[in-house]
Prior knowledge:
By secondary structure, the chain is of the alpha/beta class. It is 29% helix and 20% strand. It has helices at residues 38-43, 57-64, 97-107, 124-127, 131-145, 162-178, 197-209, 228-246, 250-255, 274-286, 327-333, and strands at 14-18, 21-25, 46-47, 68-75, 85-86, 90-91, 111-117, 149-153, 183-189, 215-219, 257-262, 264-265, 271-272, 291-295, 365-366, 371-374, 377-381, 385-386, 398-403. Strands 3, 4, 5, 6, 7, 8, 9, 10, 11 and 14 form a ten-stranded mixed sheet that branches. The protein has a three-stranded antiparallel sheet with strand order 16-17-19, with no helix packed on it. Strands 1-2 form a two-stranded antiparallel ribbon. Helix 6 links the parallel strand 8 (149-153) and strand 9. Helix 5 crosses helix 6, helix 6 crosses helix 7 (197-209) and helix 10 packs parallel to helix 11.
Amino acid sequence: MRRLRACLGAAAAVGLTAAGATALVAGNASGATTALSNRWYAAAPYLMPLDNDPPDPAAIMDATGLKAFQLAFVLAPNGGGCSPTWGGTAPVSSDTAVQSVIDTVRGKGGDVSISVGGYGGTKLGQTCADAAATAAAYQQVITKYGLHAIDFDLEEPEYENTAAIKNEIGAAKILQQNNPGLYVSVTTAGTADGTGWFGKQMLLEAKSQGFTPDNFSIMPFDGGFNGAASQTSALTNFNAILQSTFGWDQATAYAHEGFSGMNGRSDSGEIFSQADFQTVLDYATSHNMDRFTFWSLNRDRQCTPVDNGGRTSGTCSGVAQNSWDFAKYSVRFAGATPPSTTPTPTPTPTPPSTGCKTAWSSTAVYTAGDEASYNHHNWKAKWWTQNETPTATDWGPWQDEGAC
């Protein structure tokens, strides 16, 4: 999915009912104590707060009515160890940047969930000694940010590691027990059959540990999918897997099932339009599914040019759209009505900019926000870089600003 990372902390938790849903109340640095309904956490789209040209969550909230964000990703330190970091590099314990994002969202009446894992990187389930140690690391995240929701994104390469998955599922169960009302989602890869062999093994591990999250969500993209029909077929097949694994009837399985899509152009070149999202949303609501989310808000804006040169970007969708078009489907899933907007524009060629920035130099040092020109395009540095040729890749240091 995400192509483009001790002793148990004491969380002050009290069960309550908020907007008809059980919720966790926990103290945190910003003093927020009010949870949203579970439906909002189930609708929270993914947002990378530190990478991929993070959008302003306040602007998204104003434009769409969205209230919840799924912040990604918490990982083990790149150098090893069992302490939580953002992206493997920024310790949660000393974080102020993500806390500022959370404070902004909560200041406007919203809230966040935090996703642990994702595609690539080293996960805490791989580096912590056991489930208890893994849970203790995640409890630090819950306590610091006063979380009411958490997402376990279990995929490559972690979900091929039996011991790591045992630690992650065990940690999720411990956190669920120690934080009453905590909304817990588990997200994994999707296939045409629902989910693959490793996804099924993860479900069996959950069954063996007696762990039932609020939902198990699949990501039906990057696997030869072709629009909404292939995705709803995968969701139907995954429902059958949940039934057979846990002994649930169809309705119970749907009540524990979720969808996590990718807006616009996927990593493998599949295209998922606004119409596809509407079709899947209709399927999810008509079957009373528990979750509808997508990767990602960083991508929920139009590329320049629209098709992004046939590449998948971490900062735009690759399809014609208004900014935050896809976020509005999450708002509708939560049961709210987004503000009305103008129709999606008809894509038109974007003329080259009038001037090129100073030519890129292999010996120069560039920091975040610095601009340079290369191969008749202007480029903006996303972070510190030197001697890395400007190329439009999801995880590279350069962002293409268009022809010049």
